[in-house]
Amino acid sequence: MTDEAGLIDYTWTSAALWGDYNNDGYPDLYLANAHSEANILYRNNGDGTFTDVTGSAGVGNTGWSRSAAWGDYDNDMDLDLYVVNGWADTRNVLYRNNGDGTFTDVTDQAGVSDLSDGYGAMWIDYDNDGYLDLYVSNFYGPNKLFHNNGDGTFTEVAMSEGVAFEGNTDGFAWGDYNGDGFLDLYLATLNETNILYKNLGNDNHWLEVKLSPSISNASAIGTRLELYSGDITGLRFVEGGMGRFSQNSLIVHFGLGDKTHVDSLLVFWPSGITTVLYDLGVDTMITVSEGPTGVEHRSIKSPLRPYIGVLPNPVDVTSALIKLVLPAAENGRLSIVDVAGRKVRELREGYFRAGLHSFSWNGKDDLGNPVPGGVYFADFKGKKLHLSGKFTIIR
What we know:
It comes from candidate division WOR-3 bacterium. InterPro entries: Crtac1, FG-GAP, FlgD/Vpr_Ig-like, Integrin_alpha_N, UnbV_ASPIC. This protein is mainly beta. It has two domains: 275 residues, Methylamine Dehydrogenase, Chain H, CATH 2.130.10; 87 residues, Immunoglobulin-like, CATH 2.60.40.4070. The protein has four helices and 29 strands. The chain has a four-stranded antiparallel sheet with strand order 1-2-3-4. Strands 5-6-7-8 form a four-stranded antiparallel sheet. It has a four-stranded antiparallel sheet with strand order 9-10-11-12. The longest helix is centred in the first third of the chain and has 4 residues.
């Protein structure tokens, strides 16, 4: 099926990872290639075929890559990408998802380059502050733990946190082995004793989610989870593997900082079923079951209410988050329009599943020009529903 799917690649591939980078509900494929071959991003067309969009997306790194990791480090509800390169003279690369099918190299400004002989990486919230941190394993030299400062930058803290192992790390996994709500770390080393690091924790809150599928695959691989708690948002996917020779616990973990309840949790199963939970407690593990039928199923206290809004508001646009809630599936178009109703930017047109959707917008129009300050509307027009949310841009 490889040729028919359009996945023909004759390079030295070190790792392959699935991630829905454009939020269309279909997993896309990123290949990390060695021998200075360009990495490849294949966009899933939703019909059994794929398109090579490496050039237009801007993620064709040629640094002798050994692995990569998808994760939403900036909490704008789309997947960013970290690429691990395997020679000391090639830096690792962080690509921020712009929300429009393209990525920007923000490695230097984020502070996560790491010129060591990289081997693997994983995104995890080790301190439960609501922001994904980054752990990078190296084959020679100490491993790195980059703490997410919540402002687009990171601080390297592996030594102070006690996880700067200096041997050869072959693989590693994060999981809450003792059930205290904080992720612990296990290192598989080469020719040395493996190591278990217990996370000593702090006062931050957390939620863990154990999935119980009945229609989807037995491990719920490919399930998307979205969490909303005040100004904290969280995006997670259940993955069959991450980094290199590694896989985290299948129990999904969210750090919540000082939040004492969860407004909503949305679970999008591979079967197409959506489960929505409202008003959840914290510092606990919950089990979420898949619906008993192939139709949409929601475990909720009240029906979904139509909603569209922009966060923050007003916004000094570098990346605005647009939330859209649909009580039923719709064919429609989501756009940014000005006060005269003229379309400024089309964000998406086509099929929208029932439930909550999140889109990021970089403040540019359809031609790629920054829009001036003023009043605008996030506008959704479907066959049965029209929603409009007012917001202000400050330049």
